[in-house]
Design brief:
Elements (H helix, E strand, L loop, with lengths): L9 H9 L7 H4 L2 E4 L3 E7 L25 E7 L1 E10 H6 L6 H25 L10 E3 L13 H9 L8 E5 H8 L2 H8 L9 H8 L3 E5 L2 E3 L9 E3 L5 E4 L13 E16 L9 E14 L5 E5 L6
Length: about 300
């Protein structure tokens, strides 16, 4: 049997798994759901499945009414995402004990894979097309949540009451969160007339009775190679209210998740002299097999253009 040109390296794999930028939120807003094979399926239930009101009374000689879990099994498959970084042999040979060229390459590639995953997550959670049409709104410039004349608390509490599964997660971009936490109406609702300063994530979570407030801080350059870089925030001026199930599985209703086959892994292959310079080198490959999916679009609410653009 032919051997893989990319033998898995446990040391590099540990680096690739451990490298995590604290500003990324994809694993929080689209948490991972492990699957046993690359091809997988999950159940998508109509929202009425868990809210029907069948008669439960049974006569002395009667039969109980029957109910069924009428869902649709959705078939899908995880997709492989990976990047490779070539390291010249000369770099390895000349490195001192304080620097690990192969480990550094694995960390860099892991970082870039995280950025791409963050882009996919933001493109899902902050996309109005993701949500049920009745559970999304686009705010006019005069109605944005950082406008002092907007009743921000009322707008959000009303929105939280609309989905059949009440959202337990508020998702902001960093600029939106900065404007929101200094909103005078929000500060007054939390601290009263004598309060001031900036509100915290915990205070906002308690005010709106949600489990967590999540803020996307990541930047990224999304221009093509060769073009002048334009670094911008990946999470825009929107606000998403989503329901995340406390225990995740393929059968659990939750707004969105990331189906994951296996762990992220790192491997390396030899580059012969001539393939890379005079002495050859090592190509470090890092990758994972995942698929981001919206599972219950009716378990969320979306404010598009929730904050002023500046």
């Amino acid at each position: 049997m032919a051997q893989s040109p990319y033998p898995i390296d446990p040391h590099l794999t540990a680096i690739a798994i451990a490298y995590k930028n604290a500003g990324y939120i994809a694993d929080i807003v689209m948490p991972r759901i492990e699957v046993g094979k690359q091809a997988f399926s999950f159940m998508q239930y109509g929202m009425d499945t868990f809210f029907n009101t069948p008669e439960t009374l049974i006569g002395r000689r009667g039969q109980a009414n029957q109910v069924t879990m009428d869902g649709v099994e959705i078939a899908d498959a995880t997709e492989d995402h990976g990047l490779e970084s070539p390291v010249p042999k000369a770099d390895v040979d000349n490195a001192d004990e304080r620097y690990d060229p192969l480990g550094n390459a694995a960390a860099l590639v892991a970082e870039l894979i995280e950025i791409r995953r963050e882009i996919r997550a933001a493109g899902t959670i902050f996309n109005p097309a993701t949500y049920d049409p009745a559970l999304r709104t686009t705010l006019a410039t005069t109605d944005v949540l950082d406008n002092p004349n907007t009743d921000t608390v009322t707008l959000i509490t009303d929105a939280l009451d609309k989905p059949l599964m009440r959202p337990n997660q508020m998702v902001f971009g960093q600029r939106g969160w900065t404007k929101f936490r200094r909103n005078a109406g929000v500060i007054k609702a939390i601290r009263g007339t004598n309060g001031g300063g900036l509100v915290t994530k915990q205070e906002v979570a308690e005010l709106f009775e949600v489990s967590e407030v999540v803020v996307g801080q990541a930047f990224g350059n999304q221009t093509r190679k060769g073009q002048a870089p334009i670094v911008s925030r990946l999470w825009g001026n929107h606000l998403a209210l989503t329901y995340k199930a406390p225990v995740l599985s393929r059968e659990t209703p939750t707004f969105a998740g990331t189906f994951t086959w296996g762990e992220r892994q790192a491997s390396q292959r030899e580059l012969k002299p001539g393939e890379m310079g005079l002495r050859g080198g090592t190509a470090v490959l890092v990758g994972e097999s995942v698929k981001e999916r919206v599972i219950a679009a009716q378990a969320g609410y979306f404010f598009e253009n929730a904050f002023s653009p500046n």
